[in-house]
Amino acid sequence: MPEILVEGEGVARHFRQADADVYALRPASFVIRPGDRIALLGRSGSGKSTLLHLIADLDAPTSGQLTWPALGRRGALRPKYIGIVFQAPSLIPTLSVLENVEVPLRLAGGNPSPRTEAMKALEAVGLASIADKIPDELSGGQAQRVALARAIALKPKLILADEPTGQLDQSIARQTIDALLASIEGTDVALVVATHDPAVAERMKTTWHMDHGQLQLASTMEKT
């Protein structure tokens, strides 16, 4: 069996509201391995973002066990091993496109040529020609692809994309998913895309379903 990147056993996240526990994620068990292409399909508010935030170590579960066997320990996973693409690009407005992509490379350290690697990431998503522009000069689709370049610049082992096409029209959304898949084609990088769009889910190999905080793996299957 391939090495395990992420393993969750009974992982849950709940919040105390008045005198009751409100579950954003009900106890869930799952495994993510190299090369996985997973669509996390569900309506807005179903718990998809909560699960991705836990996997990304942006939040901690209130119960259960979450580990990253082939990635490392909690607190040392980003940005080197896990790349994240959010629904909104979240670019730094005062930095150029190239400088935005450089940020994780400089934060991680140990790279002798962060600018060169950042440009390679922009080339991978077809945006090398706008490297000197600032975020205010970009279209929504371009900004999202810059965010994608920023996520892949460090060549992470796992990419988590949280509704990356949620604010884009259908044509631009398709181009963005094309760029995302092309950037990791032929690699063993694992990809989890949270979406409520069946057209996006169809591009992945495996589909997980989220409904009212419940992760449903019974329907997970390899697509042909």
Explain this structure to me?
The chain has a single domain (35-61, 70-216), classed as Rossmann fold. Mean pLDDT is 92; it is low at 220-224. The chain is α/β, with parallel strands linked by helices and 224 residues long. It has a 6-stranded mixed beta sheet with strand order 5-6-7-3-8-9. Strands 2-1-4 form a 3-stranded antiparallel beta sheet. Helix 2 packs parallel to helix 4, helix 3 crosses helix 4 (140-152) and helix 4 runs parallel beside helix 5. The protein is built from 6 helices and 9 strands. The two termini are 20 Å apart.
Question: Notable features of this structure?
Answer:
6 helices, 224 residues, disordered C terminus, globular, alpha/beta, six-stranded mixed sheet, single chain, Rossmann fold, 28% helix, three-stranded antiparallel sheet
**Strand content range:** 25-35%
CATH class placement: Alpha Beta
Distance between the termini: 20 Å
Described by strand count, sense and barrel closure, the largest sheet is: 6 strands, mixed
User: What structural class results from the helix and strand content?
Assistant: alpha/beta
Helix count equals 6
Helical content (DSSP H or I, runs of 4+): 25-40%
Provide the gyration radius in Å: 17 Å
How many extended strands?
9
The geometry reads as globular
The overall number of domains is: 1
- Looking at this structure, what is the CATH superfamily? P-loop containing nucleotide triphosphate hydrolases
Quaternary state of the chains? single chain
Give, in order, the helices and strands: EEEHEEHHHEHEHEE
* CATH architecture assignment name: 3-Layer(aba) Sandwich
Strand order of the largest sheet: 5-6-7-3-8-9
CATH topology: Rossmann fold
Average the pLDDT over all residues and give the rounded result: 92
